[in-house]
Every structure is written in structure tokens, then in C-alpha cells.
């Protein structure tokens, strides 16, 4: 006999979701997660079979079920298709910003060189910074910790060694230019990397992020989600449809998830063969 939506696995899963929502509300945390939880509660009929499978495979380890929902909710909040588009835009902009820094730092280094030359040979000078210690002190003028712990020692060091022992200000600019020019762009964590590997944004990016989040909670020494957990394509499709609040014309089915998984396996095999 099939369970009713008021009993068994559905009730257990919804108790966990309501517990997360209650904790977030009491501690003024993650309002976006609570929005996702409301979606799941509103679309409960679409999730009965998914909850049954989750309960069957994780129900004996309640904390594993809680960790699973944490991963699902955070993935939906951080790696929704809209957020992934922003992440991709951020990656593109970061690359552009480094290029601009490299270019402008070179230009500024040249101007600083020219100004120093004019100071030395034009018969005129300006009361601008010429020593790197002056720049450091000026930049840190509002930094309490610098003034309390470093400034006196820096002044003593500057007084001990004359300017020939220090880099010129324009050399700092040249160093910044080289640093930006040689910067390697990479994701700061494996979930971000997984979500942004595709050539263009799609719903598959969310699935990549979600799978990576599950892996993160499966491979650590203190992991609660069993490494052998494998959910059906239908369950994953239902979860994605509901957490992302996809409408009737946007819904994905088990076939979509199956094709996605197949592509992932093929890409993994290709990477393995290339090593």
C-alpha cells in the first residue's frame, strides 16, 4: 500500500525540513533556504516517491538524511541557474580586471619613473612620496594595529637603511603588473569548479554542484552520507524540479538526468584517458 503524504517517509523528511527552517528563523540565518523549504513543502505530492527512496536509503541514519537536505538546500540557494550565471559573469569580470590591473599598473609605473626623472633633472620637484615607507605609513594611517604594533619598528628600520636598500615605488607597480599578468584563474572550491565547467550555463550546472556537495559530505573522514549512496534519476529530477521551483514548461524528467549522468561518465573517462 502506498504511503499517504501525511505519514512515513514524507513525514520524516518534512520534519527535518521544518527543523532546519525553525533553526534558521530562530537564529536569523539563511532566509533563502527557508524559501526553498517552503517550495518543497508546497510541492510535497511531487516528492512522495523521492522521499520514500531517501528514507529507504538514509532513514536508518537520520543525521545522514539531515546532511543530505543541508546539501540540497545550500546547492539550490548558491547554485540556482540564476546564481550560476552570476558566477560565470564574475569569473569573466575577474579575468578582465586582472588584465586592466596589469595594463594600468604598467602605465602607473612608467609615470612614476618619469616623475622621478623630472624631479632629478627638470629643476622642479613636488612634495610627493618618494620612499616606499612613506607610502606604507600613509596607506595604514587608519589602521590601529599598524600604528600600535608596526609603525615604530618600521620607522626605525627606515632610519637605519637609506633609500638604496628599498624598492622604488614604481617597482611595486611593476610587481603588481607582473602578478596580475601571470594570474591563474581557478575556482576557490570544488563545488564552484563543478558548477561552472560547462561552456554555457544550464540546469546541468546545478546538478553538477549538487553532486559535488554530496561528494563533499561522503568522502571526508567524518562524513555522514554513505559513499555508496546512489539515487535514481527520477528522484534527482523531482528534487531538482522542486528546489528550483521549475514550472510546467521547464520540468526535467528521469531521462534528462540519465543523459546528464551519461555525459558525466563519458567526460570522466575522457579525462582519465588523457592523463
Give your account of this protein's structure:
The chain is an all-alpha fold. The protein folds into two domains: 8-83 and 192-274, no CATH class; 96-181, no CATH class. It is 70% helix and 0% strand. The model is unreliable at 1-6 (pLDDT under 50).
Highlighted features:
single chain; 275 residues; mainly alpha; 2 domains; 70% helix; elongated
How can the largest sheet be summarized? none
**Overall 3D form:** elongated
| Helix-residue proportion | over 70%
Query: Which blocks of ≥5 consecutive residues have pLDDT under 50?
Result: 1-6
Number of helices: 12
Strand-pairing-aware structural class: mainly alpha
Number of strands: 0
Distance between the termini: 51 Å
The averaged pLDDT comes out at 92
Strand composition percent: under 5%
Number of domains: 2
Order of helices and strands: HHHHHHHHHHHH
Rg result: 28 Å
Brief digest:
With 275 residues, the protein is an all-alpha fold. It has two domains: 8-83 and 192-274, no CATH class; 96-181, no CATH class. The chain has helices at 8-26, 31-42, 48-58, 62-78, 81-121, 132-139, 144-160, 169-181, 190-195, 203-219, 233-243, 254-274.
